[in-house]
Design brief:
Shape: elongated
Structural class: mainly alpha
Largest sheet: none
Strand content: under 5%
Number of strands: 0
Low-confidence stretches: none
Length: 129
């Protein structure tokens, strides 16, 4: 049996530095750049969602938009963690993380362009546009 007793005092081990907070680690220029570049992919995604919304249903378009967004969110998080843990000289993990963020931005912007306004109009008026 092993028992450890922590005693406060001058010989106690100090807590490690927690590092910067999450809002201090956000790279604003990086995210804005990827968002602007992803507009080339967001347009076709919004067009596809608009077609599904008009021909099938609004709920179907939301399902078709949210499933990839959730999957891309998990992939983006995994690739970002992989890039943080990789050796600083390796470029491949950083490129994979940037590609995942690029596609996530494209899916998010395409969804925002295609669905929220129509959803609000349909909910408030009951009229299908």
């Amino acid at each position: 049996m092993h028992v450890t007793v922590d005693q406060p005092g001058p010989l106690a081990v100090p807590d490690p530095d927690p590092g910067p907070r999450w809002w201090q680690r956000i790279r604003i220029g990086y995210n804005i750049g990827l968002a602007v570049l992803s507009l080339s992919l967001a347009g076709p995604w919004a067009e596809l969602l608009t077609t599904v919304r008009d021909e099938a249903s609004l709920a179907g378009a939301w399902v078709m938009a949210l499933i990839p967004l959730v999957a891309l969110g998990f992939i983006d998080n995994a690739k970002r963690i992989e890039a943080e843990g990789a050796h600083p000289d390796l470029w491949a993990p950083k490129l994979r993380a940037a590609a995942a963020r690029f596609v996530l931005w494209a899916a998010a912007i395409g969804t925002v362009l295609a669905l929220p306004v129509t959803t609000v109009v349909q909910i408030l008026t009951g009229v299908r546009t």
